[in-house]
Amino acid sequence: MNEIVRVAKVFFAYIKRPNLYPELSRKIIKNTINRGNAFKGKEKTGLWAASQSVSQQDAVMKLFGKDATEFRKAFGEVLEKAQQSERECPIKMGGAGALELIYYACEFTHAKNVIETGVAYGWSSLAMLLSLKNREGTLYSSDMPYLDQDGDQYVGYVVPDTLKKSWKLFRFADKESLPKIFEENSSFDVIHYDSDKSYNGRYWAYNELYKHLREGGVFISDDIGDNSAYQDFCEKNNIKTTVVEFQGKYVGVFIK
């Protein structure tokens, strides 16, 4: 799609949805005045993450005392069906993340209340819901509509209907979704962040989410090498974090 056409399509899609006007204002500022914000501190954090990163398998064993290879043995059929659903989906979204890390974080905390930002196909949602179903828990998800692809109906496409009864999806930007979620539930066992990639967006969300993570809960953030927001947040709060190298990117995880 021609970039000018794509931008125009997204802009008019925002105009049709007044509940997204606050995010439209933020995006205009982010893409004009604050264009460099997305990569603030990237070089510093890239070196920091590379110097201490471990594999997902090592992280799962170190933090949760589990063999990560057991996940795909236990849920091979479910994951195969999810992969088929992704192949059949008519639009393209972000791929699967560190599913084993996410699943075993939920198992480790005996999670009943989990929150994630960013859904796309719903791979992380699927990993969480596979654990939550054992305890009749609830997953609260924040995800913006896919305005450039008319893809709202495909969000969470790989999640089977049998798991959706435990899932509450809020279709706004994080600054609107999170307060609504916190009104329903104020304490969470696991938090998974994978939405706004800008420094300011991440740093704001990390602080808000951290307040609602219970002691002993697990915090996970994808793509922490994009900028230094995660490193800065952990250093400011004296948090000892594990850095996981996953498919050429870095994931941050710590137990509160």
Structure description:
It is a single chain. The chain has 256 residues and is of the alpha/beta class. Helix 4 (56-64) runs parallel beside helix 7, helix 7 (99-108) runs parallel beside helix 8 (123-132) and helix 10 (199-211) packs parallel to helix 11. The protein is globular. The protein has eleven helices and seven strands. It has a seven-stranded mixed beta sheet with strand order 3-2-1-4-5-7-6, sandwiched between helices. The protein has one domain (3-255): Rossmann fold (3-Layer(aba) Sandwich), CATH 3.40.50.150. Pfam families: Methyltransf_24 (PF13578). This is Class I SAM-dependent methyltransferase. InterPro entries: SAM-dependent_MTases_sf (IPR029063).
Overview features:
256 residues; alpha/beta; Rossmann fold; 7-stranded mixed sheet; 11 helices; 7 strands; 45% helix; 16% strand; globular
Structure, briefly:
With 256 residues, this protein is an alpha/beta fold.
